[in-house]
Amino acid sequence: MKNFSTWMLVIFMAMFWVLRVIVAVSYELGGSFAGIVPYNSTLEIVLLFVVLLCMILVVKRKVIGGLIYLIAYGMYFGTSAVNGIMTIVNGNIDLVASAGGSTYLNLLLSIVGLILPIAVVLDLLLDKNRKLNPKDKKTDWFYTNEAYDRKLDDRADKNNYRTL
Questions:
Q1: For the whole model, what pTM was predicted?
Q2: 120 lies in which domain range?
Q3: Within a domain: residue 164?
């Protein structure tokens, strides 16, 4: 992980994961964290472990980790975002608010839960080309400098050391 963008996305992934852990734990303890409730508590807990595995794969620059992350969060937060938008459009906000959750905050987190995996997959796909042809300034001067090799070869041919 040499890119700043990758580090930032992994940090945002971790922060969002910690937020989802807090939401899941507070819901299991019988409350809600600032009005945020999980849509499906069992699926939320399973998703937390899947995302933890995906974070490790994203750090290792594996595209499959980003794709699993996108599919998992897309299925979980995609339906929730559509349901939240339809609830707001239809004007049924009072029904959801009486159930213990904040519609707008849950919708905002659903949208963040959709944007973050898309950004991770795009970062992995755009950086994949750079991984195939890496440029390392510390070693490329030696391996790609033909003039240095010729100069070294000419000097090596002129040395006549005696051996005992």
A1: 0.69
A2: 4-158
A3: no
